[in-house]
Amino acid sequence: MEKKRILSTEFFRDFQDKEKFFETLISDENMLPRAVNLFKLLIICSFVYGIVMGSFFDYRQALASAIKVPLLLSLGMLICFPAFFIIQYALGSRLRFWQVFMVILSGFVVMGLIMVAFAPIVLFFVITGDNYSFLKLLHVVIFALAGIFGMKTILDALRFSCEKKNIYPRTGVVVFRFWIIILAFVGMQLAWNLRPFIGARDLPFELFRAREGNFYIAVIRSMTDLVKSAPEKTNRKNVEPSAAQDTMEPNKEGKVSGK
């Protein structure tokens, strides 16, 4: 009797062969077990990235972020999925519920894998630097980049269903691009409500912060802080030696004074 694996590696085996990968995604065979396996892979990847993300503060924030990041991706997908399914069904798609869900889920799994791939880089900056604003922007860039790869995977799967299988309308591929925008806005708002993910070292640990401002203002503020921090460090280096010289200047009587 074949042993059941906790996590199958089928996703990695098929991913390089795109046509086989997309064929497997929309196949009716073992649909539920494959969906569960993909969801477990998403949770594991986002859990690992969450630990790295929150390690800038301490172990409490690392543990909290390890729960929040999987929650962010899972809720973002589940909140936006019904609207996409109903719209594509109204447009004439013959993809069934689980087939559409597998296609969307595969994109989120790719997103999680890209994030994990960047985890060592994030950990490097956590260990070697202490710029909170830089780390916030770095995570925003990683999420955006991972999202692009994830959404491209979904788009390619829909195109395959349209051009190769003729079970998905061409209009649905266009509509999906608008759904990506909706997903992005939902994800950013959800992330703002679940913050903090990194944790500022000059503030006490908080599981959730008070609702104030918004995601866009926070990103602009981080960029401003990052730009300001560079001149401040340069000025500090230039001011400190001159200040030391000022304290040793001789007074009018020829004596050295210590200000």
How is this structure best described in words?
By secondary structure, this protein is mostly helical. The protein has one domain. 74% of the residues lie in helices and 0% in strands. It contains 8 helices and no strands. The protein has helices at 10-15, 18-25, 31-54, 59-90, 97-128, 132-163, 170-194, 215-247. α3 (31-54) packs antiparallel against α4 and α5 (97-128) runs antiparallel to α6 (132-163). Mean pLDDT is 84; it is low at 242-250.
Topology:
Layout: H1 10-15, H2 18-25, H3 31-54, H4 59-90, H5 97-128, H6 132-163, H7 170-194, H8 215-247
Helix pairs in contact: 3-4, 3-5, 4-5, 4-7, 5-6, 6-7, 6-8
- Element string (H = helix, E = strand): HHHHHHHH
Quote the distance from N terminus to C terminus.
Answer: 85 Å
Number of helices: 8
Radius of gyration: 25 Å
Protein traits:
elongated; 259 residues; mainly alpha; single chain
Gist?
With 259 residues, the chain is an all-alpha fold.
